[in-house]
TrEMBL record:
Organism encoding this protein: Caenorhabditis brenneri
Coiled coil: 210-237
Keyword entries, A-Z: Coiled coil, Iron, Metal-binding, Oxidoreductase, Transcription, Transcription regulation
Domain JmjC: residue ranges: 226-376
Domain of life of the organism encoding this protein: Eukaryota
Cited PANTHER family: PHD/F-BOX CONTAINING PROTEIN
Classification lineage: Eukaryota, Metazoa, Ecdysozoa, Nematoda, Chromadorea
Protein name: JmjC domain-containing protein
Signal sequence residues: none
GO MF annotation terms: metal ion binding; oxidoreductase activity
Chain intervals for the UniProt region annotation (Disordered): 1-62
Length: 466
């Protein structure tokens, strides 16, 4: 296929899935461990051993039960998974009230400030188009025709296997007792595949409306139209149009992922890249999220953890944050809407097909910047790979400032002053732009204009005088 990216993985999840004890720690443990290397010649997965230990009755005994023989907790090992499924129902945090809506209509009418987790029972009224016949693993083949080898996470190991969608679906069609691995495909972004599912699917209206990238796309298209009608023909006009078109053509694409997860998959604790907000629609099967609020403390714990090299991670922050987790079960047909920064981990109790995606929003601008900065520090120290970040985040922020924020501030829109200040705080002339949408002089010019407008605001003046 022509438009198939050779490396479609873009998300921050790979390492999370693969957290497992270091080899020395493994030696001390008597528990059978999942396969560590090649998946070839594997025996079928052992049936989970049943022990007679009583089921945990509170969070503390639950966390205790997860410990391996050396006293550590190793998420996604066989021992962990067995104990986890026995006690996971205990994870409750009464401070997180998941808002339940019977339909998309009700959600759209009642969502208000997007500051909590929402669960929408049926997709009617969400304005999300999902093909009706995408109802089985075989049906996926009809919509995803790429022959590229996709990176698939092998749950419970440090490995990732590259395989075609055909091979993966064959594995899903293998009876559970004959499966040799638990596969979890999280990185198939299908908007960039350019056909198939992309044409049969549309993101929820709420996502479309809130997404800064979508707003930017509309604005860039509108600008091209304006230039077309208002400017005299000539080189300058063509150059301007082509610059804008390049931005449209290279906008980051993170809104449409197809996730295929086998029963038993476990995705460890993370915040989605750049603290993007998430929609997550379960087409088939069932998923369980455990979510914690983006409080200052939780985000601090998470950032520290991310900055610690894998081998030095002594504690599982799932335990450190025991009381913070709220269980959120997403059943077939339901859609979860999770705002920026919620820390989460995910367990898949049944083979599942999900469509979900990530988007940047204005309300959480500062948090999005903050997490992106943390991720960049992590890239430097090698605990996160650059490819797992939101590529083009800074280009988008510069372009948003130039094309949306500045014109609105110029027309005296005081609501935006706070946003202007945040942009001013984080955007720097020397910022490296992965998509190279602006050169040094252009960045400088944008920041100069922004600075003048932010300072010119009466509220800003008052604040300075206080
Ligand atoms: O479904 C999963 O296993 C992981 C989902 C998730 O949190 C993500 O894709 O970011
Ligand atoms: Fe996630």
């Amino acid at each position: 296929m022509e438009n198939v990216p050779t490396t479609p993985i873009k998300r921050v999840r790979k390492a999370k899935e693969m957290y497992s004890p270091s080899p020395d720690k493994l030696k001390k443990s008597s528990h059978p461990k999942p396969p560590q290397k090649s998946q070839k010649n594997l025996k079928p997965l052992a049936q989970t051993p049943r022990r007679n230990a009583p089921k945990p009755h509170d969070n503390q005994s639950f966390m205790e039960s997860l410990r391996d023989t050396d006293g550590h907790i190793y998420p996604s090992t066989e021992h962990f998974m067995e104990k986890f499924s026995q006690g996971e129902h205990l994870l409750k945090n009464s401070e997180i009230k998941v808002k339940f809506w019977k339909s998309g209509h009700e959600f759209m009418a009642g969502v208000g400030k997007f500051d909590g987790v929402h669960l929408v029972d049926t997709k009617d009224g969400l304005g999300m188009m999902v093909p009706d016949d995408l109802d089985s693993f075989d049906a996926v083949k009809k919509y995803i025709t790429t022959t590229a080898k996709l990176p698939v996470i092998v749950s419970g190991t440090r490995t990732e296997e590259k395989m075609t969608i055909t091979k993966l679906i064959k594995a899903f069609n293998t009876p559970k007792q004959r499966r040799t691995a638990i596969y979890n495909l999280l990185s198939l972004e299908f908007d960039s595949l350019g056909q198939g599912l992309r044409d049969a699917f549309s993101v929820p209206e709420f996502v479309h409306r809130k997404s800064m990238i979508n707003k930017l796309k509309d604005k860039l298209s509108q600008k091209i139209q304006e230039i077309q009608t208002e400017m005299e023909n000539g080189d300058e006009k063509e150059e301007l149009k082509s610059k804008l078109q390049t931005q449209i053509d290279t906008l980051p694409k993170y809104q449409m992922f197809l996730l295929l997860s086998m029963e038993g998959s476990f995705t460890d604790i993370h915040v989605d890249f750049s603290a993007t907000s998430v929609y997550y629609h379960v087409i088939k099967g069932r998923k369980v999220f455990y979510v914690a609020k983006p409080t200052e403390e939780n985000l601090r714990i998470y950032a520290e953890y991310e900055k610690t090299p894998l081998k030095e991670r002594e504690e599982w922050i799932g335990e450190t944050m025991t009381a913070e987790w709220q269980r959120l079960e997403i059943k077939e047909g339901q859609t979860a809407m999770i705002p920026s920064g919620f820390v989460h981990f995910v367990f898949t109790p049944e083979d599942s097909i999900v469509i979900g995606g990530n988007y940047l929003v204005e309300e959480y601008l500062e948090q999005q910047f903050e997490l992106t900065v943390v991720e960049e520090e992590c890239v430097k120290i090698n605990t996160i790979q650059r490819g797992h970040m939101l590529e083009g985040f800074w280009d988008v922020m510069f372009s948003y400032t130039l094309n949306i924020l500045i014109p609105e501030l110029e027309s005296g829109e005081p609501r935006l002053i706070e946003m202007g200040r945040i942009m001013q705080k984080y955007l720097k002339e020397g910022q490296n732009l992965q998509k190279k949408w602006f050169n040094g002089d252009e960045k400088k010019e944008i920041l100069k204009k922004l600075g003048e407008l932010v300072l010119a605001e009466p509220t800003a003046k008052r604040a300075r005088m206080d």
